[in-house]
Amino acid sequence: MAGQQVPSALMTQQVHGLLRAGLPIGDTAQVQDLICLRGVVARALDPGTRSSLIRALDGLLRWQLARFEHPRLGDAARILFGVTRGMSGLTLTERRARAAAASGYEVHHFRKRIEPEICARLAGMLSADAEDFAGGAVAPRLGRARRPTRLGADVFAWEVAEHEQALAALWSGVYALRAELLATARLASMNGPRHEQTRSSANNALWRLALLYRQAAAYRQAYGPRLLGADPNTAPEQLAHFAGWHPPVSRTTAAHLTALAEIHPGAEQFAGTLPSSPIAAEAEVWCSALADPPSPIREEQQPWT
Amino acid sequence: MDLTTLIDPLGPPRRYVITGGPSAGKEAVLDELAARGIPATDGEPAREIYRKHRDRLGRHLQVGDRREYSREVLEAFIAEYTVHKHGLRFYNRGIPDGYGWDAFFGLAPYPELEQASRTYQYDAVFVLDPLDDFESEDDLVFAKDREIRRVHELIVQGYYDAGYRPIFIAADEPARRVDQILANIPAPTD
């Protein structure tokens, strides 16, 4: 199940609905939209089952309540939802009275004005959390380094850094392909699609695509069939879409290109071997279509669709 | 019960976990505990296992290696847990960290991890909030800071899944964090 955006009013309403029983969240709670939030889906041990999603939502809410640092409402919120020690199992009326006292409000004012405010704030925190989990296929952000990179002696840090390394390698392939696609388009415009320079650039673009497929295959081997944390799910090969339009490539041809780039990673070796490979004809068609694309390009003519 | 009584090497075992995502300042907190003479994990068992795996494979871990690696780390955590018989001890990560770590790599929890989480229970879990500088814009390694945050959050969720109610320790100087941890040690119930 993919995470989704939920209107804030609906989220507030469902958070408010949890007040009656407090935490832990029961199996019959009306939280059908909250359990679809990205942050909940990502935390669930088994995102395919409602009970697992509810458990994840329960944990997330407890964490957010623990982090609810509002000077006036923090303690009241924890009491109200029954997560403060000794509050679990009390009725809503009892919890409300204690929460109102803790925050210094008259109980009716608390019910009418403060409870909705607490629920809206919690819904806002859930929404911000979901936003944090909206990974998408975004190139690692770069910044100006003002100090040396030092990693703590922590396996988690090493592994996250290694994943960042794999992503950086993948995206470098995407940008290299993009550069070559732009070069081909420019040369085709300046000299025509059949000009030697244009054809050479198209061949280079195919080589770059093959290298990107090889990097994607390495990523798959290390981390599985989708980019970790990307939402919606994105296969590493699909990053080629972000480089710019290029003619579609069948999975069989992609597999051949990957294997070829594995054996001959250099541009000259690759170009020298391609004409005698099983995909020579497809490669020729691909380069021609890149240099002289059909017009107009239909949307369904995307690679890896 | 005061700290001296808890540390009593002849007293019943009390086990407390210090955890958090990368760059949460765990190492400094554990050093500070050690400096105060409070028993704590020296190093991190997972590090040596990770190095050993890499040396044996001659490459980084791949998706097919992860389950075996997780099992070995789990065994090390269990060994560290069971060898402690008396008095207080702080652990550098605990068994339920495995939930978060496997989730990060898209792996579902496996039966041995679930069983171990039920069998070997800690007395409390302290989660170190990420240090402020961890989101620094000029830290190139962690340019993708969301990923670090996700690791942290999946670890926290792992402890909730295992039935714990973690105690969160705000970003601060190591000594102040240790003060905060010691002030929040729950009173033993036995």
TrEMBL record, chain A:
<protein>
    <submittedName>
        <fullName>Uncharacterized protein</fullName>
    </submittedName>
</protein>
From TrEMBL, chain B:
<protein>
    <submittedName>
        <fullName>ATP-binding protein</fullName>
    </submittedName>
</protein>
<keyword id="KW-0067">ATP-binding</keyword>
<keyword id="KW-0547">Nucleotide-binding</keyword>
<dbReference type="InterPro" id="IPR027417">
    <property type="entry name" value="P-loop_NTPase"/>
</dbReference>
<dbReference type="Pfam" id="PF13521">
    <property type="entry name" value="AAA_28"/>
</dbReference>
<dbReference type="GO" id="GO:0005524">
    <property type="term" value="F:ATP binding"/>
</dbReference>
<feature type="domain" description="NadR/Ttd14 AAA">
    <location>
        <begin position="15"/>
        <end position="171"/>
    </location>
</feature>
<dbReference type="InterPro" id="IPR038727">
    <property type="entry name" value="NadR/Ttd14_AAA_dom"/>
</dbReference>
